[in-house]
Amino acid sequence: MNGPANHGLTSPVSQGNKGEEMPPATERPRSGSQAEQEPVAESVHEVPASEATNDETTRDATRRGTVAVPSTAITRLRISQDNPPTREMGVRSAARRFSSAAFLTSERYPNLRRGPYGSLSNSHVNTFERILSSERVLTNEDDVAPYNIDWIKTVCGQSKVVLRPKTTEELSAVMKVCSESRLAVCPQGGNTGLVGGSVPVFDEVVISTSLMNRINSVDGISGTVSCQAGVVLDKLEAALEPEGLMAPYDLGARGSCQIGGNISTCAGGLRLLRYGSMQANTLGIEAVLADGSVLNMMNCLKKDNTGYHLRQLFIGSEGTLGIVTQAVLQCPIRPRSVNLALLSLKKFGDVLSTFALAKRTLSETLSSVEMMDSVCMTSVGNKLGLKCPLQSDSDTFFMVVETHGSREDHDMEKMSCFVQEAMDKGLVVDGITSNEPSRMTNLWQLRERITESLVKDQYVFKYDITLPLPKFYEAVEVLKQKLESFGSDVQVSGFGHVGDGNLHLNVTAPAYSDDLQNAIEPFVFEWTSSVGGSISAEHGMGFKKAKFLKYGKSPEAIRLMRSVKSSMDPLGILNPYKVLPPS
Ligand SMILES: O=C(O)CC[C@@H](O)C(=O)O
Ligand SMILES: [Zn+2]
């Protein structure tokens, strides 16, 4: 028998809907004096599919895995035989191949110390290969590289191995090995996170759920789906559609993000306003715990009050308490009619008044209320070539308002009346409505692809915060003022789920700089907390925000979090350096 394969690793050193066309604008209901002065046909117009954007890419093109970090973009590193790289150099150059701004997390955060974890050895790799088969144990540097870096290229770990289990049993066996050798692990879904939660910080073993992609069952009557954690959101949607159901949430990253990752980060997204949170919609969970034991809570029931709601522990804990392997989600009925409006507004106060009006007039049909400022709209235009069909200037705000309903004529009329009333009241300057699927898709891209446009050719500091609505856009203004001295190369912008009070606050700069980061943090967290907001709305704490947890939780709450963590993961091997601040 051959001896164990040499994987080039060191030995252990430490134990450490197509709807009907809208009637022509001139036929829509009008009222009030402003409508008389300003013909609706000129202000509210429908958008021809080709005019909405000049990019015909479909919603699928927003798949982050393909648009932002295409695997084909990973060019092979040419290594001179005279000067073979060390493992460390290899990871470093793998990181730098993605972008000139790439770097190792351990370099950018030099005060960070690796925990007392074991080191990966050839013998571990051989054991993993026995459990998973060798094709599902990646050790080749080029294969491992994409799992080390986040898709916006802001953090980069140095893992040497990626494990790709297909079943809960395999993942459980892997965790038993990791627990016995105190190997730290980093669970990873679609790697679409924005807070550095899904990539390793040092050399954690990456456990990818990508091959755990089975949909177990869809129950059209009770409206539930049971699936493995690695199912990609748009694949789930495709499986739900024939049953007349849809996922209870929607994200721009739907082409790459996975259900397990969505649950672990308590993802919010574009429809939370209408369909509720991940906490509300996750009925059942199966998770593998730190010691490899399997916790099966695959409940399909809407009502289950049998004591502690344990599944909630895994929703939003970012893989620090267990790795979600399967789940049951409650799924709403797919709407028969969808209507969309893209609006432009003069000031943020009008955005809030329009939101209030939308709630009153669109009531039960309202499914999404999003906003973006002109910096964001300009960015999707300049960087991605997506043309906004509305007139605007540098102070304009934009809103996307969507309805989901069951009566096309009724829903369309409701949307028209809402836009008309908003214009009559002088809240909305210009607007477009559509219920034609490809047109709506194009209009949605103006909102959904902001993230992709902001990261293009520049560094982005991202802050995902919840704020009381009157303070929502003040965050952008306050930060602009704070960063004035950095000059016009540094831009502050805001967009997000205004319907949920969730602002995505972004600072873009030509490159990362410690000075800029130190000017923003902890200032932005202090300010958010001082006005009664939350420093993480829907992206989680990950690695980047962990040290700022005190701005979101009281000392007592943090103590309880630590005690839950140490009782469920006494060796601290599950996604270390994330969520909780270093102790
Ligand atoms: O880029 C961001 O900050 C937000 C990403 C995502 O949550 C979105 O709402 O588009
Ligand atoms: Zn968002």
The count of domains is 4
State the shape. globular
Rounded radius of gyration (Å)? 24 Å
Could you tell me which ligands this complex binds, including any ions or cofactors? (2R)-2-hydroxypentanedioic acid, zinc ion
Approximate helicity band = 25-40%
E-strand count: 17
Tally of helical runs: 22
In whole angstroms, how far apart are the ends? Answer: 47 Å
CATH architecture assignment of the largest domain: 2-Layer Sandwich
Identify the strand order in the major beta sheet: 1-14-11-13-12-16-17-15
The main β sheet shows up as:
8 strands, mixed
- The structural class is alpha+beta
The CATH topology of the largest domain: Alpha-Beta Plaits
Query: Kindly state the mean pLDDT as a whole number?
Result: 86
Instruction: Kindly provide the name of the CATH class of the largest domain.
Output: Alpha Beta
Protein name: D-2-hydroxyglutarate dehydrogenase, mitochondrial
Catalytic activity: (R)-malate + A = oxaloacetate + AH2
Organism: Apolygus lucorum (Small green plant bug)
Family: Belongs to the FAD-binding oxidoreductase/transferase type 4 family.
Structure, explained:
The chain has 583 residues and is an alpha+beta fold. The chain has 4 domains: 144 residues, Alpha-Beta Plaits (2-Layer Sandwich); 138 residues, 2-Layer Sandwich (Uridine Diphospho-n-acetylenolpyruvylglucosamine Reductase, domain 2); 116 residues, Uridine Diphospho-n-acetylenolpyruvylglucosamine Reductase, domain 3; 82 residues, Alpha-Beta Plaits, CATH 3.30.70.2740. Helix content is 32%, strand content 17%. It has 22 helices and 17 strands. The strands form 3 sheets. Strands 1-14-11-13-12-16-17-15 form an 8-stranded mixed beta sheet, sandwiched between helices. It has a 5-stranded antiparallel beta sheet with strand order 6-7-10-8-9. Strand 8 and strand 9 form a beta hairpin. Helix 5 packs across helix 8, helix 7 runs antiparallel to helix 9 and helix 14 runs antiparallel to helix 16. The radius of gyration is 24 Å and the shape is globular. It starts with 31 loop residues before the first helix and ends in a 15-residue tail after the last helix. The N terminus is likely disordered. Bound molecules: (2R)-2-hydroxypentanedioic acid and zinc ion. (2R)-2-hydroxypentanedioic acid binds next to strand 15.
